[in-house]
Amino acid sequence: MPLIQSLAVGLLACAVHCLAPAALADSSQPGPFAVSQRTVTITRASGTTFTAQIRYPASSAAANAPFATAAAPAPAITFGHGFLSAVDLYDSTMDHLASHGYIVIATTSEGSLLPNHANFALDIRQCLTWLEQQNALATSWLVGDVNTAAFGVSGHSMGGGASALAAAADPRIKCLATLAAAETNPSAAAAATSIQRPSCFITAAQDAIVAPSSTLTEYNNCDAPRQFVSIAGGSHCGFVDSAIIACDSGTLPRPDQLAKTRSLLLDWFDAHLRFQPRAFTAAWGAGTPIAGTTTTRDARTTLTLGASALSGAAGAKPLETTITITNIGPDSTAFVLRASSSPFDVSFVPANIAELAAGQSATATVRVGSSAAGNASIVIDVVRGRDAAGASAALAVNFTAPPAGPADLDHNGVVDAADLATLQNSWGKCAGCAADFDHNGVVDAADLAVLLSGWS
Question: Could you tell me the pTM of the whole model?
Answer without folding.
Answer: 0.86
